[in-house]
Amino acid sequence: MTNFDVKDRAMADRGRTRILWADDQMPVVRGIRERFAREKPLEGLRLAACLHVTSETANLARTLAAGGARVRLCASNPLSTQDEVAASLAVHDGIEVFAIKGEDNDTYYRHILQALEAAPQLTMDDGADLVSVLHSRKRDLLPGIIGGTEETTTGVIRLTSMAREGVLAYPIVAVNDAMTKHFFDNRYGTGQSTLDGIIRATNLLIAGLKVVVAGYGWCGRGVALRARGMGAHVIVTEIDPVKALEAVLDGYQVLPMDDAARTGDIFVTLSGNKHVLDRRHFEVMKDGAVLSNSGHFNVEINIPALEGLASGRKQRLRDYVDQYTLPSGRRLNLLGEGRLINLAAAEGHPAAVMDMSFANQALSAEYLVKEGKDLKRQVYPVPIEIDREIARLKLQTMGVRIDTLSDDQQTYLSSWSEGT
Questions:
Q1: 123-169 pLDDT, tens per residue?
Q2: Residues 84, 11 contacting (CB under 8 angstroms)
Q3: Bridge partner list, 147
Q4: Cα angle value 106/126/16 (rounded, 5°)
């Protein structure tokens, strides 16, 4: 009997159909799974993963298991779990899953500890909570770990800080920074799924509204692009002058949040920082403003400050919409409890884009098994050879062919003697 904690194992068959539907859109991961099943590059290894438990993640877990790993999986966000998918992984695939949608904070961390009970040799994280628990509460397990991977910007920031301070105990590959991840997953995946989550939660017409995008990294670029495509007037806020300049040249209005707060209809935070929307912003927002987050943690919106301003005048209007009434009578609508709206109210990124992200995860795990013992306790990029191979495989599955260099061209590019 597989060790697991899911909402209802009777949901497993329905979850299976969702997993297989996603698998049809993930040909690169499927090809890696077929090779892993033959070669068993992860044979006998214990792997703990703290990821969003979705149908796409399920196909990554199945791939790792096919490669010979014993996989324990927990959720990286209390609202992102698809319960039927968790049940299917436990019942049909023998994956040890500990995830329930809507779990409270104590259950969330209990599930992380359960994922670590098998003393993993590899870790996979989305936000670095698993690594944080390892370093703070389960340090006895650190000597046995070969390496790990990190899926998202927030996690890479945390892990880079740990490495800089000399406290990171094993090497981590920053999957988030692979070109085949952030160029596509962060931009096109986050862009589409964030708007999907906002619309599912509110049923608002986006056209004609002022959408404020906080942060113009790859995720912010994607949301701004999709919002403009749906007819919104997009305002970008930034702290980085280079990114702010890029947003201006991309045709967006750029304002400080203190100014944008007065005019926005929908706010989307994607900064990776805390209190991007704060008390002073709530105090000047227009009646009916919508607040949402597509950054990793629910700290980008200062929810305690919002609760304090409303003094308990809060009501659930729709699934994933909590309305706070301020003393002035103005109403502010918080979506998905300030958590990732694309996973809280929708289904996360399309499988076709997660195909590349999770191909990076699987191949980086294989890389760590081969090279991890020789790596320093630092954060490493995905090897460029893996990144390019994933792009090549993705193009191949799409039926797209590209040019190759001739011998003469290769010689020209590698020499310095030819000029004008």
A1: 999 999 999 999 999 999 999 999 999 999 889 999 999 999 999 99
A2: yes
A3: 122
A4: 85
- 0.85 surpassed by pTM: yes
- 3 state SS of 73: strand
Q: How far apart are the first and last CA of the chain?
A: 72
Residue position matching structure tokens 């926005």: 264
| CA separation, residue 262 to residues 256, 291, 331, 339 (Å) | 11, 13, 14, 23
Q: Is the pLDDT of residue 305 over 50?
A: yes
Residues paired with 212 in a beta bridge:
235, 267
User: How far apart, in whole angstroms, are the C-alpha atoms of residue 144 and residue 255?
Assistant: 49
Got the DSSP string for 13-43?
A: HHHHHHHHHHHHT-HHHHHHHHHHHHH-TTT
The pLDDT, as a whole number, for residue 1 is 43
Q: Which H or E run includes 245? A: helix 241-249
What pairing do the DSSP bridges indicate for beta strands 314-318 and 321-325?
antiparallel
The span from the CA of 159 to the CA of 134, in Å, is 12
